[in-house]
Amino acid sequence: MTATLFSPIKLGPYTLPNRCAMAPMTRNRAAAGNVPQALNVKYYEQRTSAGLIITEGSQVSPQGIGYPNTPGIYTAEQVAGWKKVTAAVHAKGGHIFLQLWHVGRISHPSLQPAGALPLAPSAIKPAGQVYTFQGMQDYVAPHALTTGEIPAIIEQFRSAAKHALEAGFDGVEIHGANGYLLDQFLRDGSNTRTDGYGGTIARRARLMLEVTEAVCGVWGGNRVGIRLSPLQPFNDVRDSTPEETFSFVVRELNRFNLAYLHITEMGRDAPGVAGPAFDLLKLRKIWKGVYMTNSGYDLARANAAIGRGDADMVSFGAPFLANPDLPARMEQGVPLNTPDQATFYGGSEKGYTDYPFMS
Ligand SMILES: Cc1cc2nc3c(=O)[nH]c(=O)nc-3n(C[C@H](O)[C@H](O)[C@H](O)COP(=O)(O)O)c2cc1C
Fold first, then answer.
1. Ligand 1: distance of its center to the CA of 289 in Å?
2. pLDDT (tens digit, 9 = 90+) per residue, 108-151?
3. CB 175 near ligand 1, within 6 Å
4. Mean of per-residue pLDDT scores for the chain
5. Full set of structural domains in the chain with CATH
6. Residue tagged active-site, from 139, 180, 197, 291
7. Bridge partners of 129?
8. Is 297 assigned a catalytic role?
9. Looking at the predicted structure, is the pLDDT value of residue 216 above 90?
């Protein structure tokens, strides 16, 4: 029988009831100290019917912060806050992975400890502006990490992975996408280093692979996922040879026997902006494990992709944000609520926990 979005799937040690994942989504609603709070518990608990919930990006260290009120995973208070989220999701039989995040240069001194410069592979100022507590401000030229400073970054990911384990998550997703730190290292538009972490594709991929190794050391590979965005120009990233770069990374990632590879196709509608376009299915063919795809999917496209074998799972962002019971609605053909962009980032219940369930 052909698999559909509603077929169960083995993911690492888990059997998920469906292939419909909730994509990671930053919602800027953590309490003081970047601590998850009761409101966040309710939001995730409402969405437990996802085969897998992937949380919003959660910074691995104070330097990893790029936006106001995003939750972290580096203090005891943050771990205690996340524990309430995982307990609520587990009480309803759900599965939840935490997305481990370091924004790199996509930050601002006003968001950094002691007003320091954000960190990056190279001192290249990204185009655009950053949302700060003082409103929109220009990005700054970041501090290029010295070779000697890189082990501390890997340690931050390792320590965050341990905290995630303590907080009761079922696994973690390494955020290697969307122009944040690991993606900045990977792509030659943001990495012009001449040490062991720059130059060739293998050297640009090195930090991502060393972080993956560290995180797998804590969790075992089969409870770790990774997200990549090969066509995504967001946050001013590009690469001169994305097909070669991402083929190399996916081939190398195979050795960790990860729970899944999560590819977002974001950027496919602006071909060429992040570098020469290529067919992402080539990565699906290189990857030996569970392949999750994302971006702009609806039920028909998701079932077509799964049916053809182009993907094993599909993650939904905006549709899940606006529909706490998305899988059931899709399965029963019930119309979806429309996402309200004005309440995506920041605020409280409105546009967060008040989207109606189907009656
Ligand atoms: C409000 C919002 C916040 C997001 N935050 C994150 C994030 O923290 N980490 C991430 O990898 N992607 C993030 N994304 C991207 C989504 O995971 C997803 O790739 C994107 O929404 C496309 O999928 P969709 O068409 O199903 O919405 C965010 C998207 C939205 C709408």
1. 23
2. 999 999 999 999 999 999 999 999 888 899 999 999 999 999 99
3. yes
4. 97
5. 9-321 (3.20.20.70)
6. 180
7. 138
8. no
9. yes
